[in-house]
Amino acid sequence: KAGVTQTPRYLIKTRGQQVTLSCSPISGHRSVSWYQQTPGQGLQFLFEYFSETQRNKGNFPGRFSGRQFSNSRSEMNVSTLELGDSALYLCASRYLAGGPNEQFFGPGTRLTVL
Amino acid sequence: DQQVKQNSPSLSVQEGRISILNCDYTNSMFDYFLWYKKYPAEGPTFLISISSIKDKNEDGRFTVFLNKSAKHLSLHIVPSQPGDSAVYFCAASDPAQGGSEKLVFGKGTKLTVNP
Questions:
Q1: Which SS3 state, helix, strand or coil, does residue B99 take?
Q2: Contacts of A45 by beta carbon, 8 Å cutoff, 6+ apart
Q3: pLDDT digit string (tens) for A28-38?
Q4: Considering only CB atoms, which chain A residues are within 8 Å of B95?
Q5: Among A104, A111, A109, which Cα is nearest to A4's?
Q6: pLDDT of A1-52, one tens digit each?
Q7: B90 contacts in chain A (CB < 8 Å)
Q8: B5 DSSP β-pair partners
Q9: Greatest pairwise CA separation for chain A in angstroms
Q10: Between chains, do A90 and B49 touch, taking CB under 8 Å as contact?
């Protein structure tokens, strides 16, 4: 079974631009979460989607948004990029939306904002 | 306010010895704990988990211990192998309304296993 895939793997943008990152979950997984990893803050939860609905959101500004499609693929968008948005963005999928169960991570998209 | 803390940024052990990675948490609502391993340029890989109703879970060379009264968990790797060298993240599941959950991560401990 293929793992979580993320595209693109690397991205360079300039301040003020916007960016869209894509995530394809493991087949059969309907829950997709996004995390931001930076050296200073570590891994921080952005949001979770299940059945095309955002179910939970972390403490990030409204410039960070996402969506999920009917095939469970998800995208996240960051508008008006700032230097501090440079980070590794990780997508994770899991089978169930309720109850504790493991999240499986993709390789991430490395975003650099110049 | 860091709810999950890994106080040791790094740990170095000899091959064949035991590696013990520690994690403390502050939120008593956490109901599930996980350990992930991360190599450079890769996403975190799930290692082992434990429910808050248990105090120990074992999977091969990996054992996780949970002490709820102390809000402390640890990951034991026995015997340690050079391929175990990676950054290890402790994570806690924070249940939210509607069945959603988010993982709250510690900042990681870099384990180096020397041959």
A1: helix
A2: A33, A34, A35, A56, A58, B102, B103, B104
A3: 999 999 999 99
A4: 100
A5: A104
A6: 679 999 999 999 999 999 999 999 999 999 999 999 998 888 999 999 998 9
A7: none
A8: B24
A9: 40
A10: no
